[in-house]
Amino acid sequence: MTDVKEKTKLNRKEITYNKLKGLGQDIINDVTEKKIPTLSVPSRGTSNIVYDDAKRYYVLGDRYGKRSLGNVKQIKKIGQMVHVANFCKDLVQREKTATLREMYYVSEGWGIGFDNQQESNIVGEDIEVTLGTTREDLGLMPEEDGASVYGNIVLQEGDIEINALKSGKSGYTISPTIDEVDFVGHDVKRVIAVETMGMFHRMVQEKAYDKFDTLIVGLKGQAARATRRFLKRVNEELNLPVYICNDGDPWGFHIAMVIISGSAKLAHVNHDLATPNAKFLGVSASDIINYELPTDPLKDIDVLRLKELAKDPRYRDEAWQNEIKKMLKIGKKAEQQSFSKYGLEYVVDTYFPEKLDAME
Amino acid sequence: MTDVKEKTKLNRKEITYNKLKGLGQDIINDVTEKKIPTLSVPSRGTSNIVYDDAKRYYVLGDRYGKRSLGNVKQIKKIGQMVHVANFCKDLVQREKTATLREMYYVSEGWGIGFDNQQESNIVGEDIEVTLGTTREDLGLMPEEDGASVYGNIVLQEGDIEINALKSGKSGYTISPTIDEVDFVGHDVKRVIAVETMGMFHRMVQEKAYDKFDTLIVGLKGQAARATRRFLKRVNEELNLPVYICNDGDPWGFHIAMVIISGSAKLAHVNHDLATPNAKFLGVSASDIINYELPTDPLKDIDVLRLKELAKDPRYRDEAWQNEIKKMLKIGKKAEQQSFSKYGLEYVVDTYFPEKLDAME
């Protein structure tokens, strides 16, 4: 078991608390100095979302909007922002979290009503962008839990230690509060994330964790934010290579790519969520051909999506361009579980070892 | 900690294995005796699905169909059944499981092809019904994991003991193989299942497990089969009362009812899945009024669904009929999380204690 060395971690909660306090203090300062209180909110418009070649994910550009109490139309929005910031400051201070839904209901008592939850969600995002912090750090938790993890890693949540090899067959569930979890130690050499829980259970059953000294991560489709944060942390804090194995279709490709290079919509938090060193293991168009997998024909919507991906800067890489072209050419897609054509064990006994060999 | 006494449990796997073997043996016997091999498959048609007042859930009636090798149209179907049964026998013997998707791909090698997965799924269900066993016992696992469980219960999976109070903030995940899990001990007086993970995390944060000596179960919407099996087992094997708290709308009502009285579609396995003693705690129409909850107006589809429920035998009970009428009258629904109007803690500090008091 490799012990994880104690790092002089910055306390994320403390930083967030200070940022939130600072936002209020700036307004008070403006008032004291008889200036009109103004907030600068970075723009999340598409023209301000830029793919950063060096970082290998989307970031926000430097455009921002001003919200001023001197503008009658902006007074309500500033009032809402201050209320939400205050609610979050309270959460952080009391070490609590709330869902966006709960915040919306709590806001009924603020007398500065949101017309619907979408409106309060957007103000929450305004605070995220303005302070350059994630909603999780603000205490605003997504409803959904993250992926399932199986394998020899020990985590600490508060005063509880959890071994993801001893959490049951469905493994350890990554909670939305993943940033409060410490890595204590591990005995693995890599991480393999798979799209479906069917494949997750197959890998647990065939003892893939043992055969490949790997953590097995069951993504359950599109990876939740907590999952992306977990994969980034194991990759960067524990120096573990991360491989992603999904269905061989444009949707499977993109589940991998959002883990690798983040989404445009979350450009303001990709520095916390994207794992540019993560690698797509398969199922690729080449795999479909080489392993003679059972396939389904591409639907129109699949073809359309593949053509979109070909133009997406995240897929600039030659290997991706070739795979997209190849899939369009054969006009076929294949599921992760289609390796069972050769028996249930084949994917673990043959496919994974061959692919890992080629990639490492 | 209450220790769970060792029970002389029948070995479900052994029983299933014998049933599967028996199915093949019957055919061999017919052949040896020069009779035409025939299988009796209980009918799953709506006219054979009956609500059993004594058992308080749907069961299959006594109608069945014959499949005979003497009927040319039925030869392929019998061949498929025998192949699937053989595949399952192999799974059970090797202590493995497979998803229906995997079985479909494996079947490519059988030379008695299924046109699509729906066809192989149905044959799997034929075997379930014919042998009176669940697909889980046959080794055919659903893709989806069950609910999250938080609280002081110790479970055993193989040689691993798991305490659901020490599995992390997202708790212990009920695996599709829940019937292979043993209850070792617990220190709780009840079980509260909630519809959303937002409410699950709220309860964990407010220490509801401690305040109410309860297990907290996060259903994640409609309860998975594994969750229903878990709730039935804690109710019947551990004698723990089970309460269900969902959104106050027809869909929330029905999530509770399927746990309580099973679904019509699964009439053949409700004896393993339904928990007739489980109780609906809320959110009821009365709660909406009494707690002056924030509401949304009922949509046409909600009204339609409520009227359907009013005619459903599972809702015959006077209390249900009154709640359905009341909701139709006020024309409003409310979400579980709407209690946050009174602060994040209110639901645990006030609502749950008041309701539990009234119900116990």
Summary keywords:
homodimer, 360 residues, alpha/beta, Arc Repressor Mutant, subunit A, Dna Topoisomerase Vi A Subunit, Chain: A, domain 2, 6-stranded mixed β-sheet, 4-stranded antiparallel β-sheet, 13 helices
Question: What does this entry look like structurally?
Answer:
The structure is a homodimer of 360-residue chains. Chain A is an alpha/beta fold. Chain A folds into 2 domains: 7-141, Winged helix-like DNA-binding domain superfamily/Winged helix DNA-binding domain (Arc Repressor Mutant, subunit A, Orthogonal Bundle), CATH 1.10.10; 148-359, 3-Layer(aba) Sandwich (Dna Topoisomerase Vi A Subunit, Chain: A, domain 2), CATH 3.40.1360. Helices cover 42% and strands 18% of the residues of chain A. Chain A contains 13 helices and 18 strands. Chain A has helices spanning 12-32, 72-93, 100-106, 117-131, 197-205, 208-211, 225-237, 250-261, 270-273, 285-290, 300-311, 318-330, 346-359; strands at residues 2-3, 38-42, 49-52, 57-60, 64-68, 98-99, 140-141, 148-150, 153-157, 160-163, 172-173, 181-186, 190-194, 214-218, 242-245, 279-282, 296-297, 332-333. Chain A has a 6-stranded mixed β-sheet, sandwiched between helices. A 4-stranded antiparallel β-sheet of chain A has the order 1-12-9-10, with no helix packed on it. In chain A, a hairpin with a 4-residue loop joins strand 3 and strand 4. The longest helix of chain A is centred in the N-terminal third of the chain and has 22 residues, at 72-93. Chain A is globular. The relative contact order of chain A is 0.11. The mean pLDDT of chain A is 94. Chains A and B meet through strand 6, helix 3, strand 11 and helix 5 of A and strand 6, helix 3, strand 11 and helix 5 of B.
